[in-house]
Every structure is written in structure tokens, then in C-alpha cells.
Amino acid sequence: MIYIALVVLLVGIELIYFKIADKYNIIDKPNNRSSHTSVTLRGGGIIFPIAISIAFFLGYLSWSITLAVVLVALVSFIDDIRPLSQLPRFISHVIAVGLVFYELHLFYEPLWLLPIVFVLLIGWVNAFNFMDGINGITVLYALTAIASFSFLPINEASSPMLITMGLSCFVFGIFNVRKKAKTFAGDVGSISMALFLGYFMIKTIIDSGQLGYILFFSIYGIDVIITIINRLLKKENIFHPHRSHLYQYLANEMGYSHILVAFIYAGFQLGINLFIIYMDTKGYLSLSFIGGFLLLLTFLYLLVRNFVTRKLVLRNL
């Protein structure tokens, strides 16, 4: 019953937010870099940090992770309303990562490990935010990760927290996973969800001792890294908005449905996650396997990307 009540509460909060966003003109206007064509309410992902706060008050989550998520969500929400400079956003991310380190006792680990984890977590948060470009992709990918984490016996004690976050994704999906979205997550949603998922990934790796679970984020990771490399080779500013991700080519230039592309990304990632879990149960998830499988995924991604870009070139001739 508590989860049904939670869904009703989150739907109510979302509807109230829509009225506020509409009144104060918190909207996303399409431009030549956008993947949408109509004005849409921005910041509907505010229910992600709200769900985190609810999880804290229900005793499912620690104060440090709650504070970390709420902090980046608050700064990101301000940025959604009135764009901020890089400095306050970076400072909030650094403090949030510090709170994650505190929660996971990483400050007691070897000093050489801390900058590596710091860069990976900051990189993941920004990568997840970069990928928030078409209807459904952020929430479906997040839901895939949460479901995969929930499937692991090592995370059984965290089930109430994962269910709470999964329900927030479900509620947001009601208004976002549709042909014409009612709302977008905004930075407040994508960055807060990214931080939560990044925290839980590190927690899962530490608790299980299995680095291979990092492949739960492989589709996004490969797409972002290859896209950044591509843009650098073209001497583009990687911090400027663009439409160079594979999912953007598929949705914008190829004309596939946003929802179809979002389900393809989430579906492939879910298939990979189930395979990784299976391989771990069989004891095959060694470092060499992880590296080889990651290379295989990268090769397959490049094949698909090259096929799509060649097709677009031929179409424009």
C-alpha cells in the first residue's frame, strides 16, 4: 500500500509542478540543436530528488546521499530557470561527489584511487546529462539500471530505495514517454538521477567486489565517448549543444520515433545487463572478459554508427 500511496503522491506533485512551471514559464523552447519541435515544460524530473527525499524520510537512504542529490538538483533547477556559469555547477558536483565518497568510506582507500573515481563519477553525471535529448531515453535508461541493480542479491537490503526511485521513473514516464512529451526532465532531473545511479554503481561494485557491473552503463558510456572523440577530431567545441549522438541521428536525421529509439537503447542495455549478471553467476566475469566484451560493444557501436552516417551522406547527395 505504501508504494501505491507513493505513486499517487508523486503524480500529485508532478501535476502541481506543471501548474507552477506553466505559470512561471519554465519551458524548453526548440532550436536548431533540439530534437523536439514544440514548446515543452522543463524540469519535470524534479520528482527524482523529491523521491530521494521521501526515501530519506522513510529511512531508506542516508543523509549524505540525500544531501548530495538535493544539492545538485537545487543548483541544476536554478540553472534550468536562469542559466548559471560553470563554476557554481562544478562546485556543487564536487561537494556532492565528496558526500558520495564519505558515504562509501572511499576516503580510507588509497589516495591514487580517489582522483580516478572522482573523474569517472563526474564524467558519468555529465554523460548522463548529455544523453537527455529525446522523449523517454533518460527515464527508460534509468529504469533499466534500477531494475538491473534490483536483480542482484547483493542489493536486496536496498530494495525499498530502488523501488522508490523506480516508481519516480514510472510516474515521470507517464508524462515523458509519449510522442509529444508533457515535460522534459531538465538538468534537475537528469543530473540528480545520474548522481544517484553513479553512487549506486560504486556501492554495488564495492559490495560485490565485481568491477564488471560498470557495464550496466556501457551503451551511454560508449555513445558519449565516441561522440566526444568524433567532435574533437572535427575541432568542435564539445561543451556546445549538438546533435551528434547516434540516438540523435536515428531520431532526427533518420526519422525514427523518439520512443522507439529510447526503447532500443534501454532494451539493448537491459540485454547486456542480464548477460553480465548471468556471466557473473557462472564465474566468467573476469577483467579480461570485461575488457574484451567492452571492445566488442565498441566495435558493434562503430559499425552501426558508420552505417547510419554513410546512409545519411548518401541521402544528402
From TrEMBL:
Identification of the protein by name = UDP-GlcNAc--UDP-phosphate GlcNAc-1-phosphate transferase
Task: Note the topology in the membrane.
Answer: Multi-pass membrane protein
Give the subcellular location: Cell membrane
Q: Which InterPro entries match?
A: Glycosyl_transferase_4 (IPR000715)
Leader sequence range is none
| Species for this entry | Flavobacterium gawalongense
Q: Which UniProt keywords apply?
A: Cell membrane, Membrane, Transferase, Transmembrane, Transmembrane helix
Can you tell me where the transmembrane regions are? Answer: 45-78, 90-106, 112-130, 137-154, 160-177, 184-202, 214-233, 254-278, 284-304
* Major place of residence: membrane
Any one GO MF term held by the record is:
transferase activity
